[in-house]
């Protein structure tokens, strides 16, 4: 029964308003239970860090996500490990064998030159959907706001479907200060300069998620969401939490 006036949400299959979860090793049994109830509010599943390489029954997990119309992909750390060991061709074969159609190009741990990453995007977009990640996992490695804007736009121009803003699963690097506070000046510049439908903000905590919902709207793209938090996040998007209570429908739709 629908009787409340709530912010308008995008519906499956979404191109924005995405919720991307981070799977750090949830068991198949637990995952089946979660997806049976909540798959309709999950769009993307990242097999986090490099854990895909040691995940038991990985193909079954990938297939389970796909059965629920959720896009699975491997975390950027696995890409960087393969880059470091000169195993990118083997990595791409590995993804194809798993039936994974999305690949992340990042430099969160390694310092991969920007032009090399852009060349990889141009090459890989022929066979994969590509997500570029901007920002470092090292909280001491700073980028200026203009560098953030330029790099994100370059990735989109090179052919990325989306660009992730680094935030780590702890929310203490990239778009966040070491203490976890949000670099609000950076975020404001990003959403003014770039189509926010093409940016996926890593937002691992409810505090971070509520900030982006208030600043961008309920259809902001959010990543690094914990599987157990997806229903609470959807409630936040719908104005059903104190911090987002007064969101009005006319305020909350991305242009």
TrEMBL record:
MF terms (GO), sorted A to Z: phosphosulfolactate synthase activity
EC numbers for this chain: 4.4.1.19
UniProt keyword annotation of NADP present: no
Family listed: Belongs to the phosphosulfolactate synthase family.
Source organism per UniProt: Ectobacillus funiculus
Keyword Lyase: yes
A UniProt-annotated Pfam family: ComA
Keywords: Lyase
Protein name (Swiss-Prot/TrEMBL): Phosphosulfolactate synthase
